[in-house]
Amino acid sequence: MSSARVVAVSRDAEHRFSKPGTDEIELIAGIGVAGDAHAGVTVQHLSRIAADPTLPNLRQVHLIHAELHDEVRGHGFEVAPGQLGENITTRGIDLLSLPRGTVLRLGPLAAVEVTGLRNPCPQIDRFSDGLLKQMVFRDGDGNLVRRAGIMSIVLAGGPVRPGDPITVELPPEPHEPLDRV
Fold it and tell me: Which helix (H) or strand (E) holds 47?
């Protein structure tokens, strides 16, 4: 996986669906992306705050693989980095197959721990009608498949920029598959 890299970084101080791209984001250990509406020790997603604002924030940093953008483009959808709300767009790593607890080292200093899958929501169809069916569906065995990226917490802070390498450190076995967080 030595070719894994950061393609784009995004943040938004407001709770909006898409996040504008930037040249650099700063990760803060235990908090998330500096200046992003989802940064915090406790939940920051509006629906989760309404349910229980004291829960830990397991969704500090959202990552999506650029290969997903490529795939949905083949189905007629135009999606650019940050438009699905991710903070970090990657290439060269199958994010969805990583086990829970995987550590991703991003650039020279930053590190995040994978906590689970993003649960795709109806806002995806408001962004582009029909796109939600590309992000969540049932497979041939009836299992729910979520493909809208992964969520993580920040273990080590530091800057993250497009072009930064990504190093993968798998947790000890047995590996736990990702579930929604």
Answer: helix 46-51
CA distance 45 to 32: 13
Rounded to the nearest 5°, which phi and psi values hold at 83? -70, -20
Which amino acid, residue 98?
L
Query: Structure pTM?
Result: 0.95
Arithmetic mean of pLDDT, 38-44: 95
Residue 159 is encoded by which pair of tokens?
């800057």
2 within 8 A of 16, measured Cβ to Cβ: no
The model's pLDDT over 47-78, given as tens digits with 9 standing for 90+, comes to 888 889 999 999 999 999 999 999 999 999 99
Instruction: Domain 5-169: state its class.
Output: mainly beta
- Residue type for position 6: V
- Our separate counts of H helices and E strands in the chain read 4, 13
Beta bridge partners of 71: none
At position 23, the amino acid (one-letter code) is D
**Which amino acid is located at 64 in the chain?**
I
Residue 85 amino acid letter: G
Give me 127's structure tokens.
Answer: 């962004």
